[in-house]
Amino acid sequence: MDLTVVAYVVYLLASVGLTIWVARTLSRNGQVFLADVLHGNEKLAEAVNHLLVVGFYLVNLGFIALYLQDDDEITNARGVFEALSQKLGVVLLVLGVMHLGNVFALSKFRRRGMMEREQVMPVPPMPPQGWAGPAQPGPWAAPAGQ
Fold first, then answer.
1. In the chain, what percentage of residues exceed pLDDT 70?
2. Among 36, 108, 133, 139, which residue's beta carbon has the most beta carbons within 10 A?
3. Is 95 helix (H, G, I), strand (E, B) or coil?
């Protein structure tokens, strides 16, 4: 079997496996943030989380597929490891950037949700403390009848 094909197979298995692992980690831990942002609406948090995971898969798997091609022919075991380290290194960097982007977006949504909650909760009005009679006229008031 051609060593280039071996490198492709190992690259695909490793990069798809890493993508699935990162997506599951983001999904599991991101749902807590989404539930908080969406005021405890678990169904909506689950739906938004699922949409984010699908987008994550599409972007990363698309990148993995586009980055598969290599113009250099691999002729020995050293070439297999060099090609794999380069390709997997780039995939790991892209996954890391995507992960940081998701964490940044989730924290921004959470911060905005917390600020909205603080603004929505108005201070309740003070109940009446008693009855106040009419004010006494001061020395500057004009005498009655003038």
1. 85
2. 36
3. helix
- Round to whole Å and give the CA distance between 40 and 127: 31
111 in the Ramachandran plot: left (φ > 0), alpha (ψ -120 to 50) or beta?
Answer: alpha
Helix (H) or strand (E) holding 5, with range, is: helix 3-37
31: its two tokens: 């749902």
Backbone angles phi, psi at 59, to 5 degrees: -65, -50
Q: How far is the C-alpha of 41 from the C-alpha of 141, rounded, in Å?
A: 61
What is the amino acid identity at position 22?
Answer: V
The per-residue pLDDT for range 84-103, each reduced to its tens digit, is: 898 899 888 988 888 888 77
- pTM of this structure: 0.65
> Distance between CA atoms of 48 and 40, rounded to whole angstroms?
13
Residue 132 tokens, joined: 């106040």
Q: Give the burial string for 11-40 (b: 16+ CB within 10 Å, else e).
A: beebbbebbeebbeebbeebbebbbbbbee
On whether the CB atoms of residues 130 and 57 are closer than 8 A, the answer is no
Closest CA to 78 of 70, 86, 69: 86
